[in-house]
Structures are given as C-alpha cells and as structure tokens.
Specification:
The protein is an alpha/beta fold. The chain is built from 7 helices and 9 strands. Strands 1, 2, 3, 4, 5, 6, 7, 8 and 9 form a 9-stranded mixed sheet that branches. Helix 1 packs across helix 2 and helix 3 crosses helix 7. The radius of gyration is 20 Å and the shape is globular.
Length: 251
C-alpha cells in the first residue's frame, strides 16, 4: 500500500469519517505550504519550536515575544503535538526545541540522544467541581480519587502522558479511569459540571480557566506530585538563536 494511501486510511480510522479526515489532511497541507513560504521569505534566523499543551505554551510565548522585540525579522514556526511526536521531530531535526513534561517518568529516554533542561517546576493538582463535597477539603487522599473518572488534556493521543499519570498514582489499576480529552475547554466544562476530575499543572493554569465552579486541590503527599517542564533539544552546534531561546526560557 502506498504511504499516502496508508496515511489517509489511518486518518479516516482516527476521525471516523472521510469528511473529517479530508478537512484534517487539507489543513495539514495548507499549514505546511505556509511554513515553506515563510522560510523562503525569512531572514537567516528561523526558529522551529513545539509545545504539548495549552498550559506550558505561555512559557514559550513569553520567551519568543522577548526575542521578537529585539529581532522582529526572526521567523518562528510553532507546532503543537504529543510528547512522543514532538521529541521525535527534535530528534529528526524537524524542530529546534520542544517543551515536554517530566512527571512520573523522564521527559525523554536516556537513549534518545537528546538534551533536556528544566525550565519550570511545580506540583500537579486536581480540579474538582464545587458541586462535589470533596471540593471542601484542603487536599485529596488516594482514596478520594480511586474510583472517579480522571481527565488529562493532550491535542494528540499520547501513551506517554497516560503512563506518566499512572506512574504517579500506582494505586490506579484501571487504565480506563484516566481518559484523554482533546481540548482544555472540554476538560474544564466536564470538571465544572462534576462529570470527572482532571489533572492541572499548578503554576501554569491560565486565569481564564479559574472560576467559582472548580477548585484546584493539592494531593496529601506532595512529594510524589512534583513535575518539571523541560526544554528538549539536540546539544550539537547550537545556533545563537536557540541559545537565546534557552536563556529566555530559564529566566
């Protein structure tokens, strides 16, 4: 089977219809063409970066904003994807840097030939609806979340994040208890309406997600719930632009 036909088949299987798969394929093609044209018209400084969720994207946005203030002609290509997808793109040279999470397991395997640098650290918290009596507590114990649906956000299917959350909660035996949602908005409304709990990275929760319907509770054992956001890159012949980005991310 030709590779393009195989990709189309996989897209149809993923989206459940030819129409949705065709809209996704066209959008991907359009974005790629736009990026190629952007690079052709660009200055010698081109920065290709990726992030995996709407939470840590603010770290990337702040750093790049400062760089563009000094060099408005710098071209930036930005990708959003799963941890696996982004780290693979860095390894293959398709991205200069990506942000990943170290939570329950390292952000990249030691054999991946990639460098990681921690740029932010905090603890993970759980979003609980104020409709739920547990929201009145000051912290959650393992027994409180043993049987409830727990959500996490990722734009793409990601076994890495699922494995990270399961590693942080060894008492959870049922993989079906932890489920992925494809948008932060969907996750937030399900939590607010008491349909599920959800993982949130403390310190990176946008103010737009904070309201009177959700409380963000720490876990009783904070020592097991720390996380870091890591910058992932190839530590070979770093460009001046990439060095500057790493400096800004660490500030």
């Amino acid at each position: 089977m030709e590779i393009e036909r195989l990709k189309t088949f996989l897209s149809v299987a993923q989206y459940g219809s030819f129409q949705k798969a065709a809209q996704d394929i066209v959008n991907s093609y359009t974005n790629t063409v736009a990026e190629i044209q952007q690079v052709k018209q660009s200055s010698p400084e081109v920065l290709r970066v990726g992030y995996f969720s709407a939470f840590e994207q603010q770290l990337l946005q702040n750093a790049i904003f400062k760089m563009l203030q000094d060099n408005p002609r710098m071209q930036v290509i930005i990708k959003e994807g799963s941890n696996e997808h982004l780290t693979r793109m860095v390894k293959n040279g398709d991205l200069d840097l990506a942000l990943s999470i170290n939570y329950g397991q390292p952000s990249v395997k030691s054999t991946a030939q990639l460098q990681t640098k921690a740029i932010f650290s905090e603890t993970m918290v759980m979003g609980v609806s104020t409709l739920n009596p547990l929201s009145k507590q000051t912290a959650l114990a393992s027994a409180d979340i043993k049987d409830v649906p727990i959500l996490y956000y990722s734009s793409e299917s990601s076994t890495f994040l699922l494995e990270s959350f399961l590693a942080s909660f060894p008492f959870i035996q049922d993989y079906e208890q932890i489920r992925r949602v494809a948008s932060v908005e969907q996750m937030n409304i399900l939590v607010a309406l008491n349909k599920a709990f959800a993982f949130y990275p403390e310190g990176l929760i946008p103010s737009t997600l904070k309201n009177d319907h959700i409380r963000f509770l720490p876990f009783a054992d904070k020592s097991t719930q720390s996380y870091t956001i890591d910058a992932v890159y190839k530590n070979v012949h770093l460009s001046h632009t990439l060095k500057r980005l790493l400096t800004e991310l660490c500030n």
